[in-house]
Amino acid sequence: MTTATTTRPTGRGHSRVGRFLAENGALVGLVVLCVALFVATPDFLTGNNLLNIGVQASTIAVLAFGMTFVIVAGGIDLSVGSVAALAAMISAWSYASAGMPGWLSVVAGLATGALTGAVSGMAVAYGRLPSFIATLAMLSVARGLTLVVSDGRPIATASEVSFLGSTVLGVPVPILVLLVAGLVASLILNRTVVGREMYAVGGNVEAARLSGIRVRRVLVTVFTLSGLYAGLAGMLLAGRLTSAQPQAGAGYELDAIAAVVIGGASLAGGVGRVSGTLVGALILAVIRNGLNLMNVSSFWQQVVIGVVIAVAVGIDVLRRKNTRH
Q1: pTM, whole model, 2 decimals?
Q2: Kind of pairing between the strands at 243-244 and 155-156
Q3: Each residue's pLDDT tens digit, 289-304
Q4: Taking the domain 31-324, which CATH number applies?
Q5: Domain locations in the chain?
C-alpha cells in the first residue's frame, strides 16, 4: 500500500513578494496612485502635467534629501522651511542691496543655509540639546532674520537665481536640479565613509561611539548638509517666483519629514534611502496635483496628506516591531 505524499509550499514566493513590498512599498503605492488618478481624470498623465508634478515636487524633494541625512542619523530638523526662506532672502539682498554679482549671491544663499545648519548641529552635538528643540529654535531665528532683512517685503532675485525657475530644452530646470541633488545625496549616503557613519549613529549612537566613530562630527555634518540642501531649495523657490518672499517655505519642513517617512525611513534612525525620499516627495506632489485636477478643496487636501503621513508612520512602527521579533 502506497501513501501519497503532498508537497507543501515553502512560502518562498510569498516571502519574496513580502520582502519586495517592504522594500519598495512607496514605489508600488506611487504607481497605484498614478493609475487611479489616470482613471479618475485623463488629464493626469499628460506630458505637461507630469512636468508640472516634477516642478511641484522639486523644492520639497530637495529639502527632504537634506532631511534624510538627519533622520538617518536619528535626528529631526524642523528649521528647513525657514532656513530656505532665509537663504533665498540673503541671496536676493546680497544682489539688490549689497551689490554682489549674481553668481556670488547664489553662493551667499547656499552658504547661509549651510551655516545655519552647522549652528543647529553644534547645538545638538556640543550643547547636547535635543534636535527637536535646537531646530525649533532655529526655525524661529531664521524666520525672524528673514523678516528683519526684508523688512517684510519681497526682494527681486538675480538672473542667475531666476534661471533656476526656467526651462532648458523643454525640461524645467528645477527637475534637473532635483536629479543632480538626489544623485549627490545618494552618493554621500551610500559611497562615503561619513554616509556609513550616519547609519551607524542612527542605528545605535553608543555602539557607534565605542567603535571609534566621532559622533559629534557626524551630527554637525548631517545638520550642515540639511542646511545646505535647504539653501538650495530656497534658491529653487525664489527662482520660480523670481523674488525672495519673507513667508516662503512656511510649513515645508513638515512636508519634507513626511516625504522621508513615506519613502521608508525610520524616525528611530538608522534606516532611509534617497530613492525612497524622492518617491515620497513625488507621492505628495501627485496627491496634491490629482486632487487639484478633481477640484477637491485645499482644506480636504490637508486632511488627505495628514492621513497618508499617519499611515506611513504606522507602517514604520509595525515594520520595527516585526524586525525585533
Answers
A1: 0.90
A2: antiparallel
A3: 998 988 888 888 888 8
A4: 1.10.3470
A5: 31-324
